[in-house]
Amino acid sequence: RAKQQGRNNYQLYTSAIGTKVLERLVLENNLYKALDSHEFLLHYQPQINLENGQIVGMEALLRWQSQDLGGLVSPLQFIPLAEETGLISPIGEWVLRTACAQNRAWQLAGLPPLPIAVNLSARQFQNKNLASTIHQILKETGLDSQYLEIEITESIAIQDMNFTIEVLHHLRNQNIQIAMDDFGTGYSSLGALKHLPINKLKIDRVFVRDLVRDSNDAAIIRAIVALGHGLNLKVIAEGVENLEQLQFLKAAKCDAMQGYLFSKPLSAEAATRLYQCQYAGRLTQNSVAFS
Ligand code: C2E
Ligand code: MG
Ligand code: MG
Ligand code: MG
Question: Nearest ligand, CA of residue 239?
Answer without folding.
Answer: 1
